[in-house]
Design brief:
Length: about 375
């Protein structure tokens, strides 16, 4: 079957219709090559057509139980009506929908964004007596999916290693170049603050307190711009009482255009995730987005991160658990504007030539063709 005549339906009950991976990267990119791309969502915002993608809304669930049971059935019914050539779902809770579609003879792909069994074990609100059996059940269901579904898409080698290699590909979350079309020139103006930036969920295990503790000892006129929601929400009141808070600009959640605008006015991007969970094995999406913006990077010194930073010559790495070392490296980097600019240029060049979404979408299209043979 020719790609131009292909119809694909993406399914999610968890992600926003504007989700970066699901809509911005996959669906919108696929719509440039395929005849018909449908995205079935469950947010109650109605159906519409955006970027040549047909977004079809089955209605917002009233509770978690409703989402899991009723919304799942509604997604299954809506998916069958589409008569798509390939069904591509993005949520673990839709595995049963995927199995049902497969039993109906459909080609079905499971897009695994996270190591869910490990994630379940780290949920602070979930008692261990429940976490372990739930994690086991999810792992069992994913093993079954690996056997009966048409294909598996993952984001990292670590996750891919859990599935049948003959039916699995990696589609990494590299940035879309067109979103960051204006590389930052790192204009450093006399008398104006030097701007550090962190974009993403603000949590303890993503290093918020290490960043704030380090900020106390960063010299000169420096501001830390925090872009993203706090988890849990009560964390915000806790960090607002920190000694370094007067040097912080907090934005909360921002849309993609607003994030790009903030990055344009920044001088150093921080990725100081702590050595917990799967962070050491996950590709740091924000690191590549900083690079796409021409921003130099200061990241955790995990082996994977260290390899990326050294390969791209885009910044420095540091022990993320030690605020004193973090502040020392920040001071060194901000004091050498020439090297800072070089880091930014090299990072942008690396994204243009290697770490970009355009390099990934071709692999997904080839995977679709392979599945249809």
């Amino acid at each position: 079957m020719r790609l131009s005549s292909l119809k694909v339906a993406h399914l999610t009950t968890v992600h926003k219709r504007t989700d970066t991976r699901v809509f911005v990267k996959e669906c919108s990119s696929l719509a440039r090559f395929l005849k018909h791309v449908v995205l079935i969502v469950a947010d109650g915002k109605g159906s519409e057509k955006v970027n040549n993608v047909e977004i079809k809304d089955i209605g917002k669930p009233s509770s978690l139980a409703y989402r899991f049971f009723v919304s799942g059935f509604k997604v299954f019914r809506a998916a069958l009506k589409e008569k798509a050539d390939i069904y591509h779902f993005h949520d673990p809770e839709l595995m049963f929908v995927g199995w049902g579609l497969r039993l109906c003879g459909k080609k079905v792909i499971y897009d695994v964004h996270e190591d869910v069994p490990s994630q379940v074990l780290r949920k602070p609100w979930l008692p261990k007596v429940f976490a372990y059996p739930i994690s086991y059940i999810v792992r069992l269901c994913e093993n079954i999916s690996s056997k009966i579904l048409s294909g598996i898409v993952t984001v990292t080698p670590h996750i891919a290693g859990r599935f049948d290699s003959r039916k699995t590909i990696e589609v990494r979350n590299y940035p879309c170049l067109e979103e960051f079309y204006t590389p930052i020139d790192l204009a450093i103006e006399q008398g104006k603050p030097l701007n550090l930036v962190y974009v993403g969920g603000i949590t303890k295990d993503r290093g918020i307190f290490q960043m704030l503790d380090a900020l106390i000892n960063v010299k000169g006129n420096v501001k830390l711009h925090l872009v993203g929601p706090c988890f849990p929400t009560s964390l915000l009141s806790e960090i607002e009482g920190h000694e370094a808070w007067p040097k912080v600009e907090y934005y909360g959640w921002q849309n993609r255009d607003q994030v790009v605008e903030i990055l344009k006015n920044s001088h150093l991007g921080l990725v100081l995730l702590q050595p917990t969970g799967d962070y050491e094995l996950a590709f740091p999406v924000k690191m590549f987005e900083y690079m796409a913006s021409g921003l130099p990077i200061l990241s955790s010194n995990f082996e994977l991160y260290d390899e990326i930073v050294q390969h791209t010559q885009s910044g420095r790495t540091v022990e993320p658990t030690e605020p004193a070392k973090i502040s020392d490296v920040i001071n060194e980097m901000l004091n050498d504007h020439h090297v800072l600019r070089e880091y930014g240029v090299f990072g942008r060049q690396s994204v243009e030539t290697q770490f970009n979404w355009q390099s990934q979408i071709s692999g997904l299209l080839e995977f679709y063709q392979k599945i249809l043979k």
